[in-house]
Write a structure and sequence with these properties.
3-stranded antiparallel β-sheet; globular; 172 residues; mainly beta; single chain; 9 strands
Amino acid sequence: GSIDSSFGNNGLQHILFGKNSSDGRSILLRTAGTLIIAGFEYNENYDYGYLASSRLNVDGMVDSTFANNGLSTTQVEGFAAGNSAVLQGNGKLIIAGVSTIGVIGGNNYFLLARYNDDLTKKQIIISKIRRWLQHHNGITWDNNSHISNYVVQRSYDGIHFNTIGFVNGSGN
């Protein structure tokens, strides 16, 4: 019954989605010992909620290879909350919950969302981007053993960037 200090930060893990409050409603244990937590995140005005999920490594740290740096949010019309989650045999994540069309207090609807297990797909995309950059722009990857990782980011305005891919450096 004592807390496991090897998990997260002295046995606890706090996950913040952006700057807004979030609520974990369901947790899944994957066969590799990793965890998925699902729930919702409020928007900045606290009048809408987004489906939210995160994957944690065995040590309780957020798995940056999952979704967008370890965090997934899905905006649906109105307020949405994931209340339960299950993994299919093919690795796809299903979140069940509620969606309120319009502001809180509107009509409630049963909500299901299914997510792909995109880790392999992301690695293939990153590899293709790397080859394209090398071929079309003469960009080469720095094969320096001091590089710990490569990050691919996108931006809608050239100021705000989101990570869409992450690859650990191998030193060669």
